[in-house]
UniProtKB/TrEMBL annotation:
Protein name: FMN-binding glutamate synthase family protein
InterPro entries reported for this sequence: Aldolase_TIM, GltB, Glu_synthdom, YerD
Stored CDD domains: GltS_FMN
Family according to the record: Belongs to the glutamate synthase family.
Keyword Membrane: yes
This protein's record includes keyword Transmembrane: yes
Domain Glutamate synthase intervals: 159-474
GO MF annotations in UniProt: glutamate synthase activity
Keyword tags: Membrane, Transmembrane, Transmembrane helix
Residue ranges crossing the lipid bilayer per the database entry: 34-51
Lineage: Bacteria, Pseudomonadati, Pseudomonadota, Alphaproteobacteria, Rhodobacterales
Highest taxon above the source species: Bacteria
Gene3D superfamilies named among the record's database cross-references: Aldolase class I
Length: 550
């Protein structure tokens, strides 16, 4: 009986095809021939299913087995529009996306009736408000980036567009983002794809990212070209320079843009030839040691005419970052800023293992870097930017409280220009024309309308940031501290921000007086070297505290 069920559609299509063909032959009617077409085609498809060897399900379920593949193709859309809950994060919840859409469009972003958050559930966090709130009327919050060696410091907004390359995004998407940044007075990170004509046409402030491929500032063999970098960095539209060591979604992983996807515009922007795969190596060729990184920072700062230069990374081996800090102390060269990218960050495409299991999440990475710089007495000299699913004013405020000086967002601003989280960025079939190089698809993105949405989203988010800062009794969100937040770690237990994410004492790594509770810090500091990223020995367990003096 079960066998008959499996082959019912196949058998019926054969019988219908036979009956229609017989009727067509007897009557000579074209209508019967037309009616026979569908069952005949289905019957032939069933025969093919039975003899093909690639899909077992089709051999056992001819014809109807194709429904499985059809539903599988539409599964993400069905789940997103019909099944997904408002708070299901895959990777952004419908609630978070709706907030961005509403603020970008300038429509009502308020909520009725009460919170839908589980305020007693593990992981919930909240802002502690003041009995004496203030009204903040000016929401143009900024931070000056540029240390003593910077000749052209930059006044950066507290919220900017994170690194997304032309090539990963369409020309229209880049142009809409940059025009919006210009209108609202904030910056766009170019990503490793360098500065394209769409960036220049937009006229907005740029953070020029220099990655391992050295795109637009490379020699024909792929090595770094100081001359070409100096030419690019002289552009007044470029306000800062960012060395990319790694990104949160795929730290330690390079990339390749196939030759077939390289258009003339991409080749021009990146300074690469047509018809050849574009390789982004996992590591830089210009330096291989912490001191080498500091020297590269100084070189770029000199070549750019004194513009702020920093680096971006996702924290992996904590000892390696402490090696960079030691190199700062030994050489006297400081980056003007460090951007911490969390493991929850986005990307156009990456292996599943990297997306899910490699790199430190943003909050832990930020706290570690902030305290490492405090421990070395360098925190006041270096600004910290941070990125990782930051789309609301609360997200920004929490990051500022834990040590950030400003925040970046990639996917948040993608939502502002119409991203629907289709998660087809790597297929060149983005349904809204953002993550594609298909001219017809990207034509759907209206630059004028979307740039207005980008500016509006930024302004409304900054306004909301001013409001919650005022609720905490603060005139400026930069004054947020950990104690302004509470974190529920268990269903019946919560901790003050000072306990969950404490600020460690200034200079503790350099002090002769050790704090017993920070023994792990001292041991890791002792294993760090300014001259090498390699560990002095392979750890097999806790190191003794005497390692501090090693």
């Amino acid at each position: 009986m079960k066998i008959l069920k499996r082959y019912t559609i196949f058998a019926l299509s054969g019988l219908l095809a036979l009956a229609a063909l017989v009727a067509a032959v007897r009557t000579g009617s074209f209508g019967w021939y037309a009616a026979a077409a569908v069952p005949v085609l289905l019957f032939l498809l069933g025969i093919y299913d039975l003899i093909q060897r690639r899909h077992a399900i089709l051999r056992n379920y001819p014809i109807i087995g194709h429904l499985r593949f059809l539903f599988e193709n539409f599964r993400p859309e069905i789940r997103q529009y019909m099944i997904e809950g408002d708070r299901d994060e895959v990777p952004f919840s419908r609630d978070a996306r709706a907030l961005v859409y509403q603020r970008a469009k300038g429509v009502e972003d308020k909520r009725p009736f009460g919170t839908i958050e589980n305020v007693y559930g593990s992981g919930y966090s909240w802002l502690t408000h003041s009995a004496t709130p203030v009204a903040n009327t000016d929401s143009d919050f900024r931070v000056t980036v540029g240390g003593p060696d910077s000749l052209q410091p930059y006044s950066a907004s507290l919220y900017n567009i994170s690194a997304m390359s032309f090539g990963a995004l369409s020309g229209n998407a880049i142009l809409a983002l940059n025009k919006g940044a210009r209108m609202a007075g904030f910056a766009q990170d170019t990503g490793e794809g360098s500065v394209s004509r769409f960036h220049r046409e937009g006229g907005g402030d740029l953070i020029f990212q220099v990655a391992s491929g050295y795109f637009s500032c490379r020699n024909p063999d792929g090595s770094f070209s100081p001359e070409r970098f100096a030419t690019i960095a002289a552009d007044p539209q470029i306000k800062m320079v960012e060395i990319k060591l790694s990104q949160g979604a795929k730290p330690g992983h390079g990339g390749m843009l196939p030759a077939a996807k390289i258009s003339a515009e991409i080749a021009e922007a990146r300074g690469i030839p047509m018809g050849v795969d574009c390789i982004s190596p996992p590591a830089h060729s210009t330096f291989s040691t912490p001191i080498g990184l500091m020297q590269f920072i100084k070189q770029l700062r000199d070549l750019s005419g004194g513009k702020p230069v920093g680096f971006k990374l996702c924290i992996g081996h904590r000892r390696e970052f402490l090696s960079m800090v030691k190199a700062m102390l030994e050489t006297g060269i400081r980056p003007d800023f460090i951007v911490i990218d969390g493991a929850e960050g986005g990307t156009g495409a990456a292996p599943v293992e990297f997306v899910n299991r490699v790199g430190m999440p943003m909050l832990e990475g930020l706290t570690f870097v902030h305290n490492a710089l405090r421990g070395a007495g360098l925190r006041d000299e270096i600004r910290i930017g941070v990125a990782g699913k930051i789309v609301s004013a609360f997200d920004i405020a929490r990051a500022l409280a834990l040590g950030a000086d400003w925040c970046n967002s990639g996917r948040g601003f993608m939502f502002a220009i119409g991203c629907i989280q289709a998660q087809s960025c790597h297929t060149n079939t983005c349904p809204v024309g953002i993550a594609t190089q298909d001219p017809l698809r990207q034509r759907a993105l209206d630059v004028g309308d979307k740039s207005e949405r980008v500016a509006r989203f930024h302004r409304n988010t900054m306004h909301a940031l001013g409001e919650i800062a005022g609720a905490a009794g603060l005139r400026n969100p930069s004054d947020f501290m950990p104690y302004h937040f509470m974190f529920r770690q268990k269903d019946n237990e919560f901790r003050d921000g000072n306990e969950a994410y404490p600020y460690l004492p200034e200079g503790f790594l350099l002090s002769d007086e050790e704090i017993p509770e920070l023994a792990d810090w001292y041991a890791r500091w002792g294993r760090a070297s300014a001259h090498s990223f390699d560990p002095p020995e392979i750890p097999h367990g806790p190191f003794p505290r005497s390692m501090k003096r090693a």
